[in-house]
Amino acid sequence: MKKLTTTAIATLAVLIAVGVAFALWADVLKIHVEVNTGDVDVQFGSYSVTEYVGFPDGSGGWSFVPEGSDPEAKDVGQCTVALQEVEDEESSSPGTSAGDNDLDLVITITNGYPGYKCEVEFNVMNTGSIPVKLYFFDQSGNRLTLPATFTIDDAVECTLSGEDGAQVHPDNSATYTLSCVVQQSASEDSQYMTQIYIQARQWNEPLPSGGPTG
What we know:
- By secondary structure, the protein is mainly β.
- It has one domain.
- 12% of the residues lie in helices and 38% in strands.
- The chain has a six-stranded antiparallel beta sheet with strand order 2-1-5-11-9-8, with no helix packed on it.
- Strand 1 and strand 2 form a beta hairpin.
- The termini are far apart.
- 14% of the residues are buried.
């Protein structure tokens, strides 16, 4: 009888020990990480147009007079500016990933002649949530360092001016001026066209030396 009692007590002790091991209390804390990214997005803002008549200055250049400011500064040519869709930026513009959601600045000269000058001042607005730097490229993807002068088929000379690589914060804008002058080499009844790309990159990302990339 004494032996049975001892065995029963030993067995009970084991069961209690096991019960304590499985009933150990615990608590858990969690770290939840949520990242919401911003966006890079720009669009054209306000713009203005000024037209000039150029008179030969005797040295191969032009002396410009605003249209209507002189009897000889006749209102012959016409320069119009409109915001409209030109192409799908997502697939054809150099280095874009923002999508096809912007209107393009279309400048059209009608009835141009040697000495006619159209000057367009325009704003580029940062409508995204990330600061950006603005860079200009020609239609071949070559970087235009402002101020930049280029020609269209050796018939129209254009100058683009403004701050090169301007940093624009959200809800702010940068101002640029593009002026184009029809040269003596231009042919009658002809059409000359080019396209300029403005690439907005997040402000802390350097511009690759090899040109624009996505």
